[in-house]
């Protein structure tokens, strides 16, 4: 297992959030073995996928979540029960342990942030060209973000867009409201080389002392971010699929 600490300046030592990164593309235990970790409802959901690749991806994501949370709680993965918040944010149905988590997947990467510190959101995106569909997304960003993107050289814009997008998604996922929160109501940093930060929110004009927004280094072609409603430090760990 490889751990790469991502320090957030000025924080109390010991307040650490683990973000686990699983490779969905590499060889892992067989699908039937992983299906055995899922609930009956999840197996039914898996079987509703039309394409085998989509089904396998769903099974891997669910098995990853169950194995990791089961290991943290000392429970068999299959015994975990989940509930969903008003906008669909999954949580443990019995959360007497006070464990919070949030997951995301794109391309060959799945992430799961796990912590006892409080609500958390994470997001990963495989980059793609900035097509007209994504240009429409930019129109939903805050005016400050739109101006910052427009100032960049065209060659830097796609990466900055995905950095911005993952930071915004991580924030709305931490809040649990998903994309029902208007994306122009808050501003994140996006310029190349500038640390990730929540710069402004209409409900909290100076949110950065209360929020941790961290870019997670995923390697070329991906952007990823973590958001937590308190100061803390993130540690990225690579998930090794158990045999
Ligand atoms: C959550 C959301 C931002 C996901 O974005 P995405 O980039 O397509 O997908 P990701 O892989 O990054 O994340 C999906 C995961 O986020 C989690 N998730 C779902 N809803 C969530 C929410 N409201 N808040 C936080 N996390 C959520 C789930 O674990 C989901 O994975 P799963 O479907 O395998 O369980 C988007 O689907 C969304 O906004 N959903 C909420 C819908 C909504 O706002 N409804 C309005 C009703 S009030």
List keywords for this structure.
243 residues, alpha+beta, Ribosomal Protein L22, Chain A, three-stranded antiparallel β-sheet, 6 helices, 12 strands, binds coenzyme A
Give a written overview of the molecule.
The chain has 6 helices and 12 strands. The protein starts with a strand and ends in a 5-residue tail after the last strand. A hairpin with a 2-residue loop joins strand 5 and strand 6. The longest helix has 22 residues. The strands form 4 sheets. A 5-stranded mixed beta sheet has the order 1-12-2-6-5, with helices on one face. A 3-stranded antiparallel beta sheet has the order 7-11-10, with helices on one face. A two-stranded antiparallel sheet has the order 3-4. The N terminus is likely disordered. With 243 residues, it is of the alpha+beta class. The protein has a single domain, classed as Ribosomal Protein L22, Chain A, CATH 3.90.470.20. Bound molecules: coenzyme A (COA). The site of coenzyme A has 18 residues, from strand 5, strand 7 and helix 6.
β-sheet strand percentage: 25-35%
Tell me, rounded to a whole number, the average pLDDT: 91
The CATH architecture can be given as Alpha-Beta Complex
What do we call the CATH homologous superfamily?
4'-phosphopantetheinyl transferase domain
Categorize the overall geometry. globular
Question: Can you lay out the helices and strands and say which pair or pack?
Answer:
Elements: E1 3-6, E2 16-23, H1 31-35, H2 40-47, H3 52-73, E3 82-84, E4 90-92, E5 100-106, E6 109-115, E7 120-126, H4 132-138, H5 143-151, H6 154-175, E8 186-188, E9 198-201, E10 212-215, E11 222-228, E12 233-238
Parallel strand pairs: 2-12
Antiparallel strand pairs: 1-12, 2-6, 3-4, 5-6, 7-11, 8-9, 10-11
Helix pairs in contact: 2-3
């Amino acid at each position: 297992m490889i751990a790469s600490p991502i320090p957030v300046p000025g924080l109390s030592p010991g307040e650490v959030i683990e973000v686990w990164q699983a490779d969905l593309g590499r060889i892992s235990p067989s699908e039937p073995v992983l299906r055995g970790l899922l609930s009956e409802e999840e197996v039914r959901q898996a079987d509703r996928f039309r394409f085998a690749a989509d089904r396998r991806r769903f099974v891997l994501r669910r098995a990853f979540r169950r194995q990791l949370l089961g290991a943290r709680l000392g429970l068999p993965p299959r015994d975990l029960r989940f509930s969903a918040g008003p906008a669909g944010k999954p949580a443990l149905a019995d959360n007497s342990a006070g464990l919070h988590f949030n997951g995301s997947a794109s391309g060959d990467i799945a992430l799961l942030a796990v912590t006892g510190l409080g609500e958390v959101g994470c997001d990963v995106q495989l980059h793609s060209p900035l097509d007209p569909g994504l240009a429409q997304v930019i129109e939903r960003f805050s005016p400050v973000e739109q101006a910052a993107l427009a100032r960049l050289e065209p060659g830097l814009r796609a990466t900055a867009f995905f950095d911005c997008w993952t930071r915004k998604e991580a924030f709305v996922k931490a809040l649990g409201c998903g994309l029902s929160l208007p994306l122009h109501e808050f501003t994140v940093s996006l310029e190349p080389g500038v640390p990730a930060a929540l710069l402004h929110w209409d409900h909290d004009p100076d949110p950065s002392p209360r929020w941790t927004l961290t870019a997670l280094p995923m390697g070329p072609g991906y952007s990823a971010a973590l958001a937590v409603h308190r100061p803390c430090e993130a540690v990225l760990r690579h998930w090794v699929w158990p045999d």
